[in-house]
Amino acid sequence: MNNINHQLAIAAMPAGQCSAQVTHCFDDGSLMVESEGRGWHCRRAVSCVIAPQAGDTVLIAGVDNQMWLLAVLERANPQCAELNVPGDLHISSSGALRLSSEALNVTASTGDCHISEMTYSGEKVSAWVTLSRVVGKRAESVWQTVTQISHNLFRTTRQTEQVRAGQLDMKAEDYMRMHAHNTVITSKAITKVDSEQIHMG
């Protein structure tokens, strides 16, 4: 475009709107398009949120000595479309906002989510994290089976901890210690203490 006389280029701008084909996408967001055998250097209009790609058929218009790409009419690759805007993007709806797709991939450096009440249902959840923190006033969970494996487990209960079980089996490979100001062990049928050595007192 630098080698073309600017005044001639302005005079040759198509009147109104016309279709063109994207031939090149530049790093600054501008594009080169071709229409009726002529090449045009265009800027993408803010309303064109779908990022044009080479080979796409687009709608262009000349306004105030500037060619603008208004919309993408047809994709060269209909399998992929990218929504792209400069700066932040806010989506607002006075009603419900629904997303539906075969797969959902979200990638971001940081994230912040505020939902007053949330319901989730699904078949499976997998998470791989370095650090997890959950702070709340009350937690309730109902599971058919719970399996927990860890190298170290530390738990502190400031007031009362209660365990109700049909059968309770506790086993330590090396050392087990129970200590309290008062300890009460009762059973209705049998209480058995079995060891090579028993020290009391």
How would you characterize the overall build of this protein?
The protein is mainly beta. The protein has a domain at 6-74: OB fold (Dihydrolipoamide Acetyltransferase, E2P), CATH 2.40.50. The chain is built from 1 helix and 5 strands. A 5-stranded mixed beta barrel has the order 1-2-3-5-4. Strand 1 (17-25) and strand 2 form a beta hairpin. The protein is rod-shaped, with a radius of gyration of 34 Å. The protein starts with 5 loop residues before the first helix and ends in a 127-residue tail after the last strand. The model is unreliable at 1-11 (pLDDT under 50). It holds the Pfam family DUF3540. This is DUF3540 domain-containing protein. It comes from Kosakonia oryzendophytica.
> Mind telling me the CATH superfamily name of the domain at 6-74?
Nucleic acid-binding proteins
Give the amount of beta strand, in percent. Answer: 15-25%
Q: From the alpha-carbon coordinates, what is the Rg to the nearest angstrom?
A: 34 Å
Average pLDDT figure: 88
Order of helices and strands: HEEEEE
- Choose one word for the global shape: rod-shaped
Largest sheet: 5 strands, mixed, barrel
